[in-house]
Amino acid sequence: MSVVAAAEPSKLADRVAIRSWRTPILLGVFALVAVVLFAILGPDGQATFRISQDNDAWQVPNLVLPAKAFGIVASLILVALAVAAWLQSKNQARVAKWVTMTFAVVFVIALMVWIIGGTKTQNITLVGLFAGAMLITTPLVFGSLSGVLCERSGVVNIAIEGQLLAGAFTAALVASITQNAFAGLFAAAVAGMLVSFLLAAFSIKYVVNQIIVGVVLNVLVSGLTGFLFEKIMKTKVDGVAIYNQPVHLPDLPIPFLSQIPILGPMLFRQSIIGYFMLVLVVALWFGLFRTRWGLRIRAVGEHPKAADTVGINVNRTRFLNVMAGGAVAGIGGAYFTLVAVSSFSKDMTGGLGFIALAALIFGRWNPIGAALAALLFGVAGNLQSILSLAGTPIDGQFLAMLPYALTILAVSGFVGKSRAPAASGQPYVKG
Amino acid sequence: MSETPSIPAPTPAPTPAPTPDSKDVKDAEGTRVIREIMSGNAIISVLAVLVALVIGGILIAITDPRVTAASGYFFADPGATFSAIWASVSEAYGALWRGATYDPTARTWQGQLGIFETLTFATPLILAGLAVTLAFRAGLFNIGAQGQIIMGATFAGVVGFQMHLPPVIHLLAVILAGAIGGAIWAGIAGFLKARTGAHEVIVTIMLNYIAVSFVLYLLKNQLKAPGSTNPISPQMDANAMLPLLLGPNFRVNAGLILAILAVIAVAWLLNRSTLGFEYRAIGANPKAARTAGMIVSRGYITVMLISGALAGLAGVTQIAGTEKSLDSEIAGSIGFDAITVALLGRSKPWGTFFAALLFGAFKAGGTSMAVNADVSIDIVAVVQSLIVLFIAAPPLIRSMFRIKAVRPEGAKA
Amino acid sequence: MKLELRGITKSFGALIANDHIDLVVASGEIHSLLGENGAGKSTLMNVLYGLYEPTAGEILIDDKPVKFSGPADAMAAGIGMVHQHFMLVPVFTVAENVALGAESTTFGGVLNLEDTRRKIREISAKFGFNVDPDALVEDLPVGVQQRVEIIKALVRNAKILILDEPTAVLTPQETDELMEIMAQLKAGGTSIVFISHKLREVKAVSDTITVIRRGKVVGSADPTAATTELASMMVGRSVSLTLNKADAVPGELTFKVTNLSVMNDAGHRLLDDVTFSVAKGEILAVAGVQGNGQSELTEAVLGLHKRTLGSITLDGKELVGKSVREVLDSGVGFVPEDRQDDGLVGEFSIAENLILDLYTKAPYSRRGTLNRAVIAKNADAKVAEFDVRTQSSQSAADTLSGGNQQKVVLARELARPLKLFIASQPTRGVDVGSIEFLHKRIVAERDSGTPVIIVSTELDEVMELADRIAVLFAGKLMGIVPGKSSRELLGLMMAGLNAADAQAQLDAPVAPENGELP
Known about the structure:
The structure holds three protein chains of three kinds. By secondary structure, chain A is mostly helical. Chain A contains 15 helices and three strands. In chain A, strands 2-1-3 form a three-stranded mixed beta sheet. The relative contact order of chain A is 0.15. Chain B has a single domain, classed as ABC transporter involved in vitamin B12 uptake, BtuC (Orthogonal Bundle), CATH 1.10.3470. Chain B is globular, with a radius of gyration of 25 Å. By secondary structure, chain C is α/β, with parallel strands linked by helices. Chain C folds into three domains: 3-235, Rossmann fold, CATH 3.40.50.300; 240-331 and 417-518, P-loop containing nucleotide triphosphate hydrolases (Rossmann fold, 3-Layer(aba) Sandwich), CATH 3.40.50.300; 348-415, no CATH class. Classes of the chains: A mainly alpha, B mainly alpha, C alpha/beta. Chains in contact: A-B, A-C, B-C.
C-alpha cells in the first residue's frame, strides 16, 4: 500500500467565525428600558425591603434603598454590561455567561426596587414574597419535574396540566372520603399515573402524535373532573359537601432551620409535600446525570436507536418514565387541595401546568434549572397578587405574562441555548 | 495499491435512517402524522363517535343516584338497575339530541328549534377549526387558536365599540380588524418559527396565555366599560354587529355565512391554488419544497398569518355575532375545541365543517342536557376528547371491532 | 468462536429480504459479505444482532443453537456490530457512549465512568486508536467516531465484529487505517464480518467472500478471484462497465465558478476557494469521498446556502445571492443528491411531483390557480417518455421504486430548456436497468449543448460519464483532470493530493503495484 500524505479533512480547520448579535441586541433593549424606566422615570423616595419577621432567630435590619438613585446606578451597570456583550460579539467571541447572568440579576433587583418604590406604601416583606411564592412554585416544580422525566426519555408532555388537575381532584375526593390526607396523596399519584398511562399508551403503543394526545388529555381531564365535581362533590349531606372536605397535610417546621430569615419560612416551614419536592429535585438531578438509570434515560431521549442497539428497551424505558412523571405531577396536584386551599374547584390548576412546561423549557430540561425557573415564575406570580393590593407603576398582568414571554425568548434562542432532547416528540418504531 | 473497479452500486439504503438531531426529522414526523390523520376512513370516525358516546353514557349512568340506588339491590332485582341505567342515559342523550336539533317539549317555540343554536355554536368552531386545519397542512401545529380568537375579538371590539362608522362599512371594518388581530398573533409564531426555529407549539401555547393577560390589562384600563366594576368592555355599536339571519328570536347570524365562505375559500386554497400547492409541499416535505424553489420560511409566516386571520374571524363571530362585548372569556374553549374539530375533520376543509357542526350540536345539546337531565355539560368535553383520541389511534378502534386494516402499500419494510 | 447461520429467512410482509441464507464464519477470519445495496446484507446482520427476529432459520455459535430476542442477547453471546449509521449519542462523551448499556457502577447504580475511561485508554493504546474518553462525540471526525464504535464492541468482549459498510464515509486514508485495525483485531483472535459492495476493499482484506444477491447466497469466492467474476456474481449478469458515448464537442464556457467558498453556521469552510468552469456540451464530473464539499458545491449553485463567498456565473449573470427560484428560472436543472429528502414529496402524486418546481408557470397554473387537466396530461406524457413503471400518474411518488422515482425527478428537471444541468448521485440506489437509461438521458442532454455537472462518489460512474473530472477533498479542489485519467491518479487526488503531486507520486521510481484497469 502506498503511503499517502494527506491532510486530515477536518472541518475544524480554517475557522471563520460568524458573529451572533442576538444577545447584545436583547441586552441593549433591556438596558434601554432600564435607563428609561428605572433612571429617568424612576420613582422618588425609598423602597424598603423587610427581611426579618418578629419571631426570627436573627433579626436582620430592613434594607432601605433610595429608588431613583439605585435605578440610576443599576441602569448604568446594565448599559456597561450590554456594551461588554457588544464588544465580545464584535471580537467574534461568545458573550460570556457571567455577563448575561449578572445582567439578569441586576435587572431583576432594579425592577423590584422600581416597582416597590412606585407603590403607595413603598415597602414589601420579602418573607411574604418568597414564602408566598411557594404556593405557586411547589406545584410548578412537580409539574416541571414530570416534564423532565417524560421529555428526557423522549416523550413530550403537554398533559402536565391534566396530571395536576387529576391529582388535585383525586386527592380532595379520597382525602374527604377516607379522612386521611396520606390516602389522598397516594390516590393523587395514582391519578397522575392514570393520565400518564393514557399518554404513554396512545403515544408509545399507538404512536399517536404526543402533542395531540397531550392537548386532548387536558380537555379530557378538565371535562371529567368538572363532570364528577358537579355530580359528586356538590352532593351535600346535611348542608355539607362531604366529598369535598379533604383533610389537610399540616406544616412541619424544622426546628432552628425554620428560623433562618426568608429561607426558613420558604423551605423549612412546609408540608410533607414541600420537603418531598426538595428531595426530589436533588435526587432527580443526581439520578439523571450521575447514575446508570439517568444515562440510559438520556440516551433513549437523545438517540433511541443507539440505546436499542446496546440492549436498552426504549419503549419500556419511556413507558416507565412517563408513568413516574404522572405520579410526580399527581403529587404536585395534591398540593392544591391538601395544602394550598381547602377544597377542589373546577379547573383550579388554572394553566399552571403550562407554566410548568415553560419552567421546564426555561430550566433547560434540567431538574435544578426547572426548579429555579419555577421559583422565578412563582415569585413573579406572587408579586402580582401582592401588588394588586398595593397599587403599582406597572399592571400586574405584565408580571403574569412574564413566564410565557421568557419562554418564547428562550425557545427563540434569545436567552441562552435551549436544546430539547433530540428525540423528544418522536415515537420509536423498531425496524 | 491494488485498484479494482467497484460496481456502480448505490451507497446508502433507500430510506436513510433519520439522524435524530436534525430538525427536519421532526418535520418528517409531522408529515407522518398528517398522513395518518388524513388517511383514516369514515367507518373509523363513526365508530369513534359511538364508542365515545358509550363511555360517556357509562359515566352518566354510574354517577346517577337512581342507578346507584337500584344497584344496591341488584341481585334482588337486576332489572331495576338496567332500567335505571336506561332511564338515566336515554334521558341525558335524549335531551342532548333534542337540544341540538328539535325539542317538541320546550316551552317556547324558539326553544324548540335547537338546530339553530347548533349552527350558532358551530360558526366560530368552523372558522377556528379551519385555522388549525390550514396550518396543519403546512406542517404546523397551531395550538394557539385560543389566543388568536381573543386578539381577533379584541381588535374587532376596539373598532366595534370605540369607532362609530356608517352601516356596512362599520361591519366590514370590524371583520377586517378581527382578521388582522388574529393574523398578527399567529404571525408572531410563524415568524419565530421561520427565523429562529422556535417550536410553534410552545410559542402558540405561551401566546394564548399572554393574550389573556393582555386583554385583561386592556379591560381594566383602556377598554373598560364606563361605570362597570368588572373587566368588561362597552357594547358593540349596532352597525358593527353581524346581522341575525332569522330575526331576533335566534342567535344564528351572518357569521355562519362568513364561515361557509371561509370553508369554500380554504378548500380552493388548499386544493386548487398554487399557494396551497406550496403549503402542502412544505407540510409534506419542507426540504424538497426548498429545493424546488419554494421559500419555506415565507410559507410558514404566510400560512400562519392566514391561519391566524381565520381564528381572528372566529373571534369576530363571537364578539359581533353573539357576545356583543369583550371580556377575557370571549374565546370560551373554542380555541381548544378547534384542535379537536380539525383532527376529527381529518384536516380537510369540508371535514372540518362537518366536525364543527357535530361539536356545535354537542354544545347546544349539552346546555339542554344540563338543564333538562341534570347532567353537567362537562360530559361533552369528555366525549369530544375521547372521539379525538379514538380517531387518532385507528388501530385501537380496529382492534375493538376486529376490523382488518387496509394498507395501501401492503408491506412495511 | 465459530458462527453459523442456517436457513435464515426474513420477510417483511410480502417482501422477502433474506431467503434461506446459510453462512459460516470461522474463528479468527475476516469474512466478507458482498452484494449490491438492497441485496439483504444489512437485514441479515440485523437478524444476527438480534434487532430483527428471523422468520425462519437458526443461529449457531460454536455449533450450539442460540436465540436472540434483542441486541443485549447478541452482545452477551459475543457479537458486536458497527452500524453503517453510527449508533452514538452526539451529546454524550466517548466514555458515556461506551459505558451505555454496559455501565460500571458503584453502590446504588451510581456511574463509575473512571472504570470505563480506563478500559477505553487500554484499548486505545493497544490498537493505537488515539481516542480521548472525555471528548464529546459530536465534535469528533467521522473516522474517530467509527473507532469509538469499535471500542464499544471490544469493551463488551465481542468475539465476532460485524462492520456494516464501514468505508462508505471514510477517506481512502482512513479506509487504509481501518484495514490495519481489522488485521490487528484478526490477529488478536476476533472474527470479522465485513459488509461492503466495494470490490477492492473486499479483495484486500477478506479470507472468505460470500456473495448475496436479492436476499439469496449466490456463491462464495476466494479473495484472489477475478474482479469481473465477483462483479457479475454480485449483479447477476455480466456487466458492461462502459457506456457508448461519443466524444464531447465542448463549446463556449458559459458556467463559471470563481473563488467559491461555503461556510457552515459555525464558520467552518465546507467548500474552500474553488474555481472551475464548464463548457456547453461537456460533462464535468465532480469526484471525491462523500462529505468533502460536493453537496455544498451543488447547493451553493442552487442558492440553498446563505454563507457563500465568491462568484458563480451562468452566461455572464451572477447566481450568488439569488434565490432558488431565480436560479431555477435562469435555466438550471437540478437533480438533488437525496431524491426522497430533497427531490420528491413522497405523498404527492407523480403528476404533482412532475410540476414541483414548475407549478407557478403557465400552462400548469394561471393567476394562482392550478390547471389540473394540463397537469394530468403532462404527467401521462412524461410517464410514457421516461418509462416510469407505475399504475397511474396519480399514484403517490413514494409507491415507486428508487429507479422510477429518479426518472420522475429527471423528467421534471429536463422538461425545461436548460442552460446548466446538475445531477448529484444520479444513480444512487437505482437498479442496473434504470442506470443505463438515466445515463443515456444525461449524455443526450450534453449532446444537445447543455453544460452538465455530475457529482458522484462512485468512481465508476464518474469515469463512465465524465469528459473532465474535478476532484474535491476537504472542500478544496485538488485539480481537474481529463476524463480518461487513471484510477490511481484519481484515488490519490481523492486522498488529498493535488493533481501535480499525485502525478509525481505515480511517476516516482517505486511504482505502486498495479491493479487491473477496466
